[in-house]
Write a structure and sequence with these properties.
4-stranded antiparallel β-sheet; globular; 126 residues; mainly beta
Amino acid sequence: MTFKTRAAVVGTTVLTAVTLTAGIASADTTAPYARAAAVVTVDGKLLHGKNTSVSRPKAGTYCVKVLDPEINLANAAIVATLTNDYGQILALGTPNANCGNAADTILVMTSSNNSAADKAFTVAVL
């Protein structure tokens, strides 16, 4: 966090204004503009999250369950990206057999050179 101060003299009174500038959001994934979010490790552990839980049924396949029942994944914007790695990522918000056909679960598949591969990633529901 950055602090800036300014002082001004008005008559015999000194006025001080403090401006607070927040830095980048912490890694606690409060994600104020996302309805749900997850930071997931290579082995499928939820490192940080908001309204989510994660499972990894097989290599390169992750199921991110959205815990807020008000979120309808069928009409949500879902964004996923790999974390510090090269490869491919796919995120689907429609029921899929890999995740038990659950309507509240995002299927995330990661790969490298067109073969399933475990990768760390982030996913957010906007």
